[in-house]
Amino acid sequence: MLRLFEQHQIRKVQELEGMWDFQMEGFDGNYRLPVPGCWEQHPSFSRHRGRGIYTKELLLDHSGTICLTFKGVSHTADVYFDGEKIVHHYNAFTPFSVIIQHVSKGKHKLKVSVDNTFGEHSALHVPNDYYTYGGITRPVAMEYLPDAYIKSIQFLPYKKENQWHARMEIAVANLSEKSANLSLSCHIADTTIHSNSACLDGNSEMSFTFDHPFPSVEEWSTSNPSLYLLHAILSIDGEAIDDQIERVGFRTISLKDGSLLLNGKPIFLKGFNRHEDYAALGCSLPLQLMVQDMDLLQDLGANAVRTCHYPNDERFLDLCDERGILVWEENHARGLSLERMQNPNFDKQCEDCIQEMIENHYNHPSILIWGILNECASDTKEGRAKYKRQYEQIKRLDASRPTTSATCRHFTDICLDLPDIVSVNLYPRWYENMSVEECCRKELEWISSTPGNGKPIIVSEMGAGAVYGYRDRTKAKWSEELQAEIIRECLATYMNQKQITGVFIWQFADCRVTEEEWFQSRPRSHNNKGVVDEYRRPKLSYDVVKEMFTNR
Ligand code: ADA
Q1: Given a cut of 90, is residue 552 above it in pLDDT?
Q2: Chain segment 108-126, per-residue pLDDT in tens
Q3: Ligand 1 atom 10 nearest Cα
Q4: How far is it, in rounded angstroms, from Cα 278 to Cα 288?
Q5: Is any atom of ligand 1 closer than 6 Å to the C-beta of 375?
Q6: What's the confidence (pLDDT) of residue 406?
Q7: What pLDDT is attached to residue 454?
Q8: DSSP letter at 6?
Q9: Ligand 1 atom 3: residue of nearest CA
Q10: I need a labelling partner for 328 at 20 to 30 A (CA). Which of 200, 262, 356, 539 fits?
């Protein structure tokens, strides 16, 4: 399944899921692995970092133009079609596509070389407190494209004189040499809007823009997440040849007097940090397990999730849209030192990730914040220049959502003037040998002395580790009892501070970490701060969070 709703009625789409042929460099033998999937689920490759080759025969039922879309390949893909390299992509967490024209009917060979090694070629996938898996880890789609097709749809809802309106921008491309007489219609919420005809030159692109009132729609909210299908149909000389469906919601996000407003009303974020990671399946969760996570998040009383530390699978974001769960989505970066930020590939790999994240996820009503660069070198001048570039890039791509970045450079951060929201990762009684109250007071005092003063404040991380099943009534380190006590104390403090507009618990579920660098010191080679373990088995802290989130 590519999305939680059908994206086309006219365009023909085929999902390339199932068993692909596989070979691992340095290993003998031919394998068959499931796509989507991580190669780590195979016992021969469960701890292997290297280059794997996936191949699949494609059978085209007619000649023409196809578009191959990879929703996620971890972490670098080189794609070959009938032996010719057609696209290269870095980063496991953003989709990419490639169009191939003049393809003949019949059999063709698709090969994907996948690399999950660390080194200078990879500035963002590095040894870390989460695991970089290997494989074609998210779905793959093959689409047949007509000569002119719909390239993208952007939907921006807004209120004017207390009535809902929306601005819709639909980009189309003409792949043929010849010019085309195009027109476009948009169907949404019992309204149909028609464009005038437009002549588009061969090998060119253009956009149709509509701005329209929608007096009778219901707003999207956490309690009533109303969604609408936007169906755009492209015609040549009056004949419908292509279409695209997006699922949208009417809601506004704004900031006022240090609060975050959803549809003009202040909202307190009760959230979790959630890695895409599940026991033996790695980062390649099927829909069933995404739904289980969502059910647990809502059972816990959460109304928000942070996609730490990378853009998420669109199907999970679709679930957030449907359930009214608010999302802080962020580009791919965790804990990168200035030295790592100086990797010659860093800037482009970050900015490509931001571009692809916003281009592909712009229409999700659940996304309310764009984040960048978790705990990177925001206490250095050179680091600040990179933060500034990335915040500016986000605002160019989407000025409708506030920005933030989770910092751990307490008292030394020099970037708090840049984001719209100040976010801090706090670990009193775990990393910091101080009380929760003292830690909170000192942090708020510091923020008030910086350019971050007056901005909404989010505690983007708080928590403690507990090894599932380790019980100790004296609350020894790593016991479930200690974790439950620390989380209770943190929530009681942060949820009752008027300057704090949200809290994200670190973390929802235990996740695998790399065995290089200091991360190898983690018990079980996992980050054990989940309120559930990697199989979603609840720890004592689960009921503490449920009690405190549901009673707020
Ligand atoms: C940091 C980091 C998280 C995780 C956490 C921890 O705040 O942002 O990714 O590593 O610490 O568990 O130590």
Answers
A1: no
A2: 999 999 999 999 999 999 9
A3: 129
A4: 12
A5: yes
A6: 99
A7: 97
A8: -
A9: 129
A10: 539
